[in-house]
Amino acid sequence: MKLSESHLMQLAAVLDAGSISGGAANLGLSQPSVSRALAMLEARIGEPLFVKGKRPLQATALGAQIAAHGRVILAASRRASDTVKGFMTGTKGLVRIGGVPFFMDAMISRMVAEFQNLEPDVTVSQSYGNLPDLTAALQNDLIDLAIVPLGGPEAAAGFEFTEILAGRNIVSCRTGHPLLRKPRLHISDLADCPWVAPLPGSPLMSDLHSILLAHGMSEINIRYSGGSLMSVINYMAETNALAVLPFSVVFAQRKENRITVLPLEIPQPGRALGILRRAGVPKSLAADRLAAHVIRAFEDLKHLIKRHENAVIWGR
């Protein structure tokens, strides 16, 4: 016997309200339409669903069992409605975000956590990559947002870029590194130190090559490679190794006081960190809300980062 799911939902609503008029109001339906639906359900089953003469309405044994199934359907329907409403307002859904590894770990992951404290029904899936990988992921609809450094103000055709922070890479070392005691640093001082290899394909790697070219070196002493941000920091804190890192990453670690900036200017092109998205395509409202949160967070942070940068005596 096939029963109408809508009839079962209306039976449950009427019994929960204690009256046909109350159940109809809770469902946003008219009383006559609900009365007809319940009459059709009783006719279909061939048994009464309500105890005659009882007010508020009371279900028969069979009516109570059928109403229990109606409540399940009604609850699922309401959850589905909440999901649609949340998706349309950006308070529910999945946001897929990718970005350059060290920056994501040091800065963005914390902002994602702050965002989800405000929007607990939004799920975030984070991935890593450099600009070519992330551009391809956006193009193929594998991610919604990419956090990347760009060397110019204009994004490639088909994309839009929102700057969140001026990009600057620096040479980093442990606090207490011998080079910090030198009254004046030169790029040549870097030649004798061991190094942490930058991530392949990243701007960090191109800036390290610029250091080599500026000093006329063909190679440096790479002692460690392939680590995550935390492993790189742990390694540097126990050695005299140097690493090229974003200034903002070192800033984010300032309270730990384990690594610091080696105050030496290094050659690098002008860059900006920002949010890259596809242009001219429908956007996820949840992704819009996360992007707006990241932008606001950097509005508060970038002045502190700039003040910290200005406090460094570069090229001393």
TrEMBL record:
<dbReference type="InterPro" id="IPR050950">
    <property type="entry name" value="HTH-type_LysR_regulators"/>
</dbReference>
<dbReference type="Pfam" id="PF00126">
    <property type="entry name" value="HTH_1"/>
</dbReference>
<comment type="similarity">
    <text>Belongs to the LysR transcriptional regulatory family.</text>
</comment>
<dbReference type="InterPro" id="IPR005119">
    <property type="entry name" value="LysR_subst-bd"/>
</dbReference>
<dbReference type="GO" id="GO:0003677">
    <property type="term" value="F:DNA binding"/>
</dbReference>
<dbReference type="Pfam" id="PF03466">
    <property type="entry name" value="LysR_substrate"/>
</dbReference>
<keyword id="KW-0804">Transcription</keyword>
<dbReference type="InterPro" id="IPR000847">
    <property type="entry name" value="LysR_HTH_N"/>
</dbReference>
<dbReference type="InterPro" id="IPR036388">
    <property type="entry name" value="WH-like_DNA-bd_sf"/>
</dbReference>
<keyword id="KW-0238">DNA-binding</keyword>
<dbReference type="InterPro" id="IPR036390">
    <property type="entry name" value="WH_DNA-bd_sf"/>
</dbReference>
<protein>
    <submittedName>
        <fullName>LysR family transcriptional regulator</fullName>
    </submittedName>
</protein>
<dbReference type="GO" id="GO:0005829">
    <property type="term" value="C:cytosol"/>
</dbReference>
<dbReference type="GO" id="GO:0003700">
    <property type="term" value="F:DNA-binding transcription factor activity"/>
</dbReference>
<feature type="domain" description="HTH lysR-type">
    <location>
        <begin position="1"/>
        <end position="60"/>
    </location>
</feature>
<keyword id="KW-0805">Transcription regulation</keyword>
